[in-house]
Amino acid sequence: MEISLSKPQKSAVKVPLGRILVNKRWRGSLLCKELDSADSKVAYSDGLGFVDFFPSDSCAVIYITEAELLTPKSFTERINLLAKEYHNRGVVIVDVCRSTSYQDFQDLACIELELTVYPVSQQNEIPRILRALTYAETRQTNNPFKNSVEEETGLEKQQMSLLKLIPSVGEKAALKLLKSYGHISAISKLSEERLACKIGKADAAKVYNFFRHRVVL
Which domains, from first to last, does the chain contain? Predict the structure, then answer.
């Protein structure tokens, strides 16, 4: 599938309530067949440019495949565009299965660009993430006169929905982490010791290793 580096057209980014807007290059894919279920419905658009999914008009998601992760030039432009156009409302889902390049990617996306990065090991994990984002986004008040406080509330809901998808992290632990550190990009950089101060050693180990894509049973 050819990946565009153009910006999304404003007229194309109109997400129907409760649906996920999907770049038309994904039409017919197994991912979208799984996504277009009783729990969620998709709408396709050919004007989304470098963005793969929009759970809402203001939340943009790109998916970096394992093949892209092995060729930095192919993903660097896209994540830079995401950081520039959507700042802290941009989310990167990255396939890290068998890849040794994830640490370099994480350094760029999280530390330099401060993007929200969510690692997956299989493509079939993506629908669950997108549904969680859609649910969080549709809970926001659809008010064109939002002030900065309301924008922050929307961001917190987005971040909370993603943190709660991490094994062993419930609402209480997610809330503690967000209140202390504000954003997943900051949480993903923390040492295991600093995490343990907030949520205990056992959960801290799981969160720490999740963001480094190591499995802890």
Answer: 19-138 (3.40.50.10130), 154-211 (1.10.150.20)
